[in-house]
Design brief:
With about 375 residues, the chain is α/β, with parallel strands linked by helices. Helices cover about 45% and strands about 15% of the residues. The strands form 2 sheets. It has a 7-stranded mixed beta sheet with strand order 2-1-3-4-5-12-11, with helices on both faces. Strands 7-6-8-9-10-13 form a 6-stranded mixed beta sheet, with helices on both faces. The radius of gyration is 22 Å and the shape is globular.
């Protein structure tokens, strides 16, 4: 009887311990040590980005952050794409010993834009050490960014920029160049015919800039961009738009998905319509559903942002600015920065990868290497 009670108590303790495990730990196992097929020898391994982080670590190694330091990290919409960035903030936070609070707005496009401004104001009032965010609109946060800067906070944009504002730095792709890479992929894979592009918010800087790069790449080619469809950041509408496009253009040759959920939505519509052998899909990002559809031969190319580094690298830059100051940090980053005309060196370009069926296995190995399933 005593043994039975002992084992019952032990079982309850074990179950309680499992339930008490932090969600982040349960979802994000430690990254694997680099190996011959997932480390620096892997073509998808971003050696330069790790080099930048290591430089920031070395420069701050003998320094301490101010007491009660905390960094705000705000996304523009909740989607599986952001899981990799969340993992990056979690890894950086552990290494720095400073909390990185991962937050984001919800609702319609207009509601999210208003929420982002309100959240920035809250970060300032709650005395955060630095703010990192992806702008849902490139103009709307101008005043709030200035308010944060006036309060002495470093402000870093990532994923979607707000050009011309007082932000200190933009960490992300050069969206125009990445759009051109997507256009080249379409030229290689689709070759000719009608293409429909889709993304969420017509106001988003990243979407419009990627689209402009895509148009530049296909200019004068047999590929015709016949329509751009918007869905306000609602994935279900993205799916219905794709279904509508298949009905509207019986001779449609391809889809171009500019936001992360668009490719999977387009792939689902193609699959449901039985058009796998007729309509190609060029998707943005490597969300789990996009990877599944690529394995089924429905998605032909995925434009892979390095979303993990939106969280990991941006957090380390913000930390360095709070410890070393903006000027010292920018001087350290200078060799890695891209000159953006009047704004000078404000882009820390994380680059983009093109994943196709014949390189998909290598890409998945790289994801395993840094401990994330998608980005």
């Amino acid at each position: 009887m005593r043994k039975s009670k002992f084992f019952l108590v032990l079982a309850v303790f074990v179950i309680a311990s499992m339930l008490a495990t932090p969600l982040a730990m349960a979802q994000t196992p430690a990254p694997a040590a680099p190996s011959a097929d997932c480390g620096p020898s892997n073509p998808y391994y971003p050696t330069k980005l790790f080099e930048i982080v290591n430089a920031l670590k070395a420069a701050t190694a003998d320094k301490q952050a101010p007491p009660n330091s905390k960094i705000a990290f705000m996304i523009n919409i909740f989607a599986p794409f952001w899981d990799a960035a969340r993992r990056g903030t979690w890894d950086a936070s552990k290494e720095m010993g400073v909390p990185v609070d991962f937050q984001g707005p919800t609702g319609t496009t207009a509601e999210r834009i208003l929420q982002q401004n309100s959240m920035i104001e809250t970060f300032v009032n709650n005395k955060y050490s630095a703010i990192i965010f992806s702008a849902d609109d490139p103009v709307a946060p101008t005043e709030m960014i200035q308010k944060a800067k006036d309060a002495g906070l470093p402000v870093i944009l990532m994923d979607s920029d707000a050009p011309g504002t007082a932000r200190d730095l933009y960490v992300g792709m050069d969206d125009f160049d990445a759009g051109k890479v997507a256009g080249q992929a379409a030229l290689d894979i689709v070759k000719k015919g009608k293409v429909v592009a889709q993304f969420g918010d017509e106001t988003s800087n990243n979407g419009q800039t990627r689209l402009a790069g895509f148009k530049e790449a296909i200019k004068g080619s047999p590929i015709e961009l016949v329509e751009v469809m918007y869905d306000g950041g609602v994935p279900d509408k993205g799916l219905s738009n794709a279904q509508m496009a298949i009905q509207k253009y019986p001779d449609l040759a391809a889809f171009f998905g500019i936001w992360s959920y668009e490719g999977p939505a387009q792939g689902q519509a193609v699959k449901e319509a039985g058009m796998k052998d007729k309509i190609k899909v060029i998707a943005w990002d490597t969300e789990p559903q996009a990877q599944k559809l690529m394995s089924e031969g429905i998605i032909q190319a995925m434009m892979a942002q390095r979303a993990y580094f939106y969280g990991y690298l941006s957090s380390w830059v913000a930390y360095a600015m709070t410890v070393l100051g903006k000027d010292a940090t920018m001087k350290l980053l200078d060799p890695y920065l891209t000159d953006k005309g009047k704004e000078k060196k404000v882009l820390l370009n994380t680059g983009v990868d093109v994943v196709r069926s014949d390189t998909f296995a290598q890409y998945k190995k790289y994801l395993e290497c840094i401990g994330i399933p998608s980005q």
